[in-house]
Amino acid sequence: MTPDPTGRRETRHGNDGIVLTRTFRAPIEAVWSAVTESDRLARWIGTWSGDPSSGSVEFRMNAEGDDVQDETFTIHRCEPPHLLEVSSPAGDTETFDLLLELSEDAGTTTLTFSQSMTDPELAANVGPGWEYYLDRLVAAETGNDAEGINFDDYHPGQSDHYRGLFA
Description:
Residues 25-139 form the Activator of Hsp90 ATPase homologue 1/2-like C-terminal domain. Belongs to the AHA1 family. It comes from Aeromicrobium phoceense. This is SRPBCC family protein. The protein has 167 residues and is of the alpha+beta class. The chain has a single domain (8-165), classed as START domain (Alpha-D-Glucose-1,6-Bisphosphate, Chain A, domain 4). The chain has four helices and eight strands; from the N terminus they run ββααββββββαα. Strand 1 and strand 2 (15-24) form a beta hairpin. The relative contact order is 0.22.
């Protein structure tokens, strides 16, 4: 069963890209920890190592199989618990620019995730991937089984939606 795609095309901080939102019945500090602390990240996407105060960390995804290598993520802005802006090279010519913005209202925290892009084919692959990972985050934070979420339910079923955002 393919979940309904939630991503939209939007300009954030001057960059066009995919934007996805998730909400949590949790304080902002708890959600911030879930997206920044290595042991909490391990429950839904991967782990990081290194010293963030150096301006970069090594990140390894844990739901992509065994052939995954560490990727260097440069930290451009980190304003706990509201904003994290990072980037990572993706291949020889592409850079993934990621922005996580958190806000809290009456005990509900909203995470707004965006990735800069304009290429329809990249969006067709990346959009479903972020839907998958963010749903894993929600599962991990609500005490459900993130491992029970299947990537095949997202890709290629959501690809046309994301391709269409940039066509």
